[in-house]
Amino acid sequence: MTIQVTHFRIVRAWLVLMICCISATVQAQQTLHAPNSESGMVGSIQAGDKAVGKLAGLGEDESSSFHTYTIEISPGTKQLVVSMLAEGDLDLAIKHGDVITAYGENPDWDLGDDSTSESATLKIDRPDAGVWYVDVFNSLYEESEIAYELTIK
Question: Domain 31-152, what fold?
Fold first, then answer.
């Protein structure tokens, strides 16, 4: 009888621990909302989080419109995966250590997808520790807003 009670307590403690871990994981996932369609820094995002926003093109005389997010990568991280799904042609780029300042023909990002697709996924194996900058950008001349969702894994 004592063995059964002890076994029951161990299983019960394990279940409570697992429920707490699952609850903490669910609570940690957040959605960051870009405040408007103007270019600029939106904020920090963590693995498991998502961000949503809208971007409009700036017209023929302007450069790309963009939203910048940061993510802090810990030493020993095995892979960084950044995915975007948009309702139109938006682009995605990431860079370690500094903001992205150039798009187009001579971009200064580490990895980017500027195809005409409505989705993009960028993967970096064993990314360097530190701050990574993630840009969702609109390099089209159209001024209509395009909605997007960004996820980090």
Answer: Jelly Rolls (2.60.120)
Q: What whole-number distance in Å separates Cα of residue 17 and Cα of residue 25?
A: 12
pLDDT digits (tens, 9 = 90+) for 15-49: 444 444 444 444 456 888 888 778 889 999 998 99
Where exactly are the structural domains of the chain?
Answer: 31-152
pLDDT band of residue 104 (cuts 50, 70, 90) is: confident
CA distance 153 to 149: 13
Three-state SS across the chain? Answer: CHHHHHHHHHHHHHHHHHHHHHHHHHHHCCEEECCCCCCEEEEECCCCCEEEEEEECCCCCCCCEEEEEEEEECCCCCEEEEEEEECCCCEEEEEECCCCCCCCCCCCCCEEECCCCCEEEEEEECCCCEEEEEEEEECCCCCCEEEEEEEEC
Is the separation of the CB atoms in 146 and 92 below 8 Å? no
The answer to whether the pTM exceeds 0.70 is yes
Question: Where is pLDDT greater, at 104 or 136?
Answer: 136
